[in-house]
Amino acid sequence: MAAPGENLRIDPARLWDSLMEMAKIGPGVAGGNNRQTLTDADSEGRHLFKKWCDAAGMTMGVDTMGNMFATRAGEDPDAAPVYMGSHLDTQPTGGKYDGVLGVLGALECVRTMNDLGIRTKHPIVVVNWTNEEGTRFAPAMLASGVFAGKHTQDFAYDREDHDGKKFGDELKRIGWVGDEPVGDRKIHALFELHIEQGPILEAEGKDIGVVTHGQGLRWIECTVTGKESHTGSTPMHMRKNAGRGLALVTELVHEIAMKNQPNAVGAIGHIDVYPNSRNIIPGRVVFTVDMRTHILPKLNAMVDELMARAPKLCADIGVGFEARIVGQFDPPAFDEGCVAAVRNAAERLGYSHMDIVSGAGHDACWINDVAPTAMIMCPCVDGLSHNEAEEITPEWAAAGTDVLLHAVLETAEVVG
C-alpha cells in the first residue's frame, strides 16, 4: 500500500487549543487536572469530546462499560476499523496530557483527514477508554480489561471507591452506560499515542519513542509480623521490630532490580504500619512491592528471588514474613507490523526516534491480546507525570500526532 506523503501534517495550533480547552474541565489546584473517572467532571469532558466528534462528522457508539467509540466511515463497510485513542480520566493530582493527548491527538488526525479530503478503505475509530487510571476504582485499565476479556463486567461494576460507591452505579449516575456489549467490536489494528511518563526521550534528545514492548508487572503484598512494644523501655536486643523487616526488604527489592538491569525496576510504594504510634515499635507492617520488566523470565526470576530471600532476612531478626501476589500482567510485545508502521512514519517525517519499552501500563497493553497494537510516545519535561506539573511542548505533541496520523493512514489504506 502507498505510504502518506511526507508533507502531510496535522494542525499543531488546533491540537494545542483542544488540549487547553479540555484542561479547563476538572481543573486541579496547581495547574493540572482532577478529572477522575465517573465524576461529574469526567462526564463534562465526555460531552465536550462527543461534541467535537459530532462536528467532525463521526458517529458515536458507547458500550456498557462507558467506552466511547467515534467512527469515521471507510470506503469498505465490511473492513475492520483501525482504532486510535487513549483515555480522558486523570489522577486526583494529574496533568493535562496523560491520556488526553492520545484521545485529542486522534481527533486531530480525523480533522486533518477531513480538511484534506482523505479517504481510507478501513473505517477509523477514535476511542476513549473508561477508567484507565484506576485511581478511584481499582484496578487500572479496567474497561479495556473487560473489553479484552481480562475481567468480567460484573467484577468491574462491583468495584468500589473510598466512599463505597460502586463503578456500575456511578457510570449510570453520570449517564454514560451505553447499549453496546463490551468486546464485540472488530479491530483491524490499534495505535495509542501517549506521553512517555519517563525521562528517557528527553534525555536522549529524541522526538518519538517507538514502543516495542510494555512492561510486565507483579504486585506482591507483603506482611512482616513482629511484636508491639514500648520504644523507650524495650532493650534493643529483645525487640521484634516489623519496621526493621520492612527496611531490609526495601533494600532487597532495590538490590534485585539493580542486578537485573537494564529495563527492570522495583520499589515499595504502599505501606501500612501498625499501630503507627510514635512510641510503639511496629508489630506489623503491610506493604506492596511493585516489580516490572518487559522480559517474562526475568520478571518471574525477580519475584522468585524476593520470595526466597525475604523470609530469611526477616527470620534473622526475629520477625515473620508472608507474601502473596495481588496484581499481575505479563509483558506485552506489540505487533511487529504496527510497530514498523510507527517507525516508518517517524523516519518518513524526519523525526528523531528510538525504540523504547513502556514503563507504565496502558489500555493498549490489554488490547494487544485481542488485536494488532502499537504505541507512540513523545517526551515529557523531566519525565514527570501523575503530577499537576506534568508538561510537554506543542512541538512534541505535534510530532507524536503526525506520526500517529501517518501510521494510521498507512494501516487504514488511503484510497485514491
TrEMBL record:
Keywords: Hydrolase. One of its GO terms (molecular function) is hydrolase activity. InterPro entries: Amidase_Cbmase, Bact_exopeptidase_dim_dom, Peptidase_M20. Pfam families: Peptidase_M20. The keyword Nuclease does not apply. PANTHER family: ALLANTOATE AMIDOHYDROLASE, ALLANTOATE DEIMINASE-RELATED. Belongs to the peptidase M20 family. This is Zn-dependent hydrolase.
